[in-house]
Amino acid sequence: DAGVTQSPTHLIKTRGQQVTLRCSPKSGHDTVSWYQQALGQGPQFIFQYYEEEERQRGNFPDRFSGHQFPNYSSELNVNALLLGDSALYLCASSLGQASEVYGYTFGSGTRLTVV
Amino acid sequence: GNSVTQMEGPVTLSEEAFLTINCTYTATGYPSLFWYVQYPGEGLQLLLKATKADDKGSNKGFEATYRKETTSFHLEKGSVQVSDSAVYFCALSDRSNTGKLIFGQGTTLQVKP
Question: Which of A42, A48, A100 is closest, CB to CB, to B103?
Fold first, then answer.
């Protein structure tokens, strides 16, 4: 049973560029959350998608946007990249309202470096 | 607001030593509590969880008890192995904001043979 799959695994972009990261949730999961993990820090919640809508958002600017597709996969888009956007981006999937009970399954992440 | 505080690392232990990583939280209501582990170059893996007060989560020899009176969820293991070397994150999920995990800053564990 495949877990959460993220692509690409590594990415290097230039300041001002745009980037799209992709996530396929664990089989049977319908909810996708995105986190940003700066080096040496804990992950910070960006937003969550459920039923193709953004259900909750953390304290991130509008440059960060996302999308969820009918097959529950998701994309994270970041516009006008800044050096400070360099981080590990983690996708987590869960099963709707049962997230609290069964927890969240994380992917291995996409390491984004902005130069 | 809700927050999680972990003991600072790194924690360095010899193999077979006893491990405790302290975690305390601040939250409104009754959050679920989690411990995640991150091995070098990898994402997060759920280690254990507890969804209500006095629950004990356990997995792979690790355990943690949800203590509402002290707002704590300390991680313990009786005998650590070199393979336990990783970064450990304590996290909470606030039921009033379903889906948002709030993490501590992480504690690095190094186990020496």
Answer: A42
Which residues in chain A have their CB less than 8 angstroms from residue B42's CB? Answer: 108-109
Task: Report the C-alpha gap between A34 and A90 in whole angstroms.
Answer: 6
Could you say which DSSP state residue A72 is in?
A: S
- pLDDT tens, position by position, for chain A (115 residues)? 569 999 999 999 999 999 999 999 999 899 999 999 999 899 999 999 999 999 889 999 999 999 999 999 999 999 999 999 999 999 999 887 666 666 789 999 999 999 9
Smallest CA–CA distance, residue A45 to chain B, in Å, is: 7
Which of B36, B93, B100 minimises the CB distance to A58?
Answer: B100
Q: Vertex B24, ends B18 and B26: CA angle to 5°?
A: 170
Q: Using alpha carbons, list the distances in angstroms from residue B9 to A73, B21, B33, B98.
A: 36, 9, 20, 30
- Say which residue the tokens 């400070």 belong to: A84
Rounded to 5°, angle at Cα A93 from A16 and B96 = 95
Mark yes or no for CB contact A103/B34 under 8 Å.
Answer: yes
